[in-house]
Design goal:
Strand order of the largest sheet: 2-1-4-5
Protein name: Reverse transcriptase domain-containing protein
Organism: Linum trigynum
InterPro entries: DNA/RNA_pol_sf, RT_dom
Strand content: 15-25%
Largest sheet: 4 strands, mixed
Pfam families: RVT_1
């Protein structure tokens, strides 16, 4: 029986590569709400956990394993999350050194560090932006089609008070915690990094340098936790705000 089930799953997964729309057959999710605190009073105090079909999980895992080895080529070294051979501790050391240098710095021109946490970042990503990001990354077309089918054909029900709500379909967002979503979101955040690099190249963004021959530092990303560096001025704040607004308008 186990061998028959295994072969059936393998056959179905292989069929989804040929016909991505077949993913819809197993793309039904039950969302359980787990309280973050003992007595929650608002919906924000619950953590949603998605309960997915096993075949769907296998497909997502296969896609994630195909994308994983490409991440070091597709993602700039300023992003450390979910990229092999990159340690978050390295970026923490850089950040500590920046803070130390800021405190010791003298002169008329100061530095600033801005830390931004993107609220509900996974939930707000536009699906069209995900497709555009994958196309720009030049991953194979069959990979893009199967990935987008996995994302866009989902149907959901909420488990609440011992029962299930009516089925509904999301119109944007990624499954947080899904192995593929981690890499997709990291690629989407790379687009923001490219906006920052473009602003630096134009001379609009004034990055900092810890030593005379040291590298220019403009930003560090830890998934949806963003840290920006620049010369301390209102003009630089406006440049940073413009980059964030442009990214937000494109990504959702």
């Amino acid at each position: 029986m186990l061998g028959h089930s295994r072969s059936a799953v393998v056959e179905f997964v292989q069929g989804c590569w040929r016909e991505p729309e077949r993913v819809k057959e197993v793309n039904a999710t039950i969302v359980a709400l787990i309280p973050k605190i003992p007595r929650p009073t608002t919906i924000q105090q619950y953590r949603p956990i998605s309960l997915c079909n096993v075949a769907y999980k296998v497909i997502m895992k296969c896609l994630a394993e195909k994308l994983k080895p490409l991440m070091t080529q597709l993602v700039h070294e300023t992003q450390t999350s979910f990229v092999s051979w990159r340690q978050i501790t390295d970026k923490i050391s850089i950040l500590r050194e920046v803070v130390h240098s800021m405190r010791a710095k003298t002169g008329k021109v100061g530095w600033m560090t801005l830390k931004i946490d993107l609220a509900k970042a996974y939930d707000r990503i536009k699906w069209s932006f995900v497709r555009d990001t994958l196309v720009a990354a030049k991953v194979p077309q069959d990979f893009i089609e199967l990935t987008m089918s996995c994302i866009t054909t989902a149907s959901m029900q909420i488990q609440w008070n011992g029962g299930l709500t009516k089925e509904f379909r999301p119109s944007r967002g990624l499954h947080q915690g899904c192995p593929l979503s981690l890499y997709i979101f990291t690629l989407c955040m790379e687009c923001l990094g490219q906006l920052v690099e473009a602003a630096v190249a134009r001379g609009d963004w004034k990055p900092i340098r810890l030593s005379q021959r040291g590298p220019l530092l403009s930003h560090l990303f830890f998934a949806d936790d963003l840290i920006f560096f620049g010369v301390s001025s209102m003009e630089q704040v406006q440049v940073i705000s413009q980059c964030l607004q442009e990214f937000g308008a494109a990504s959702g």
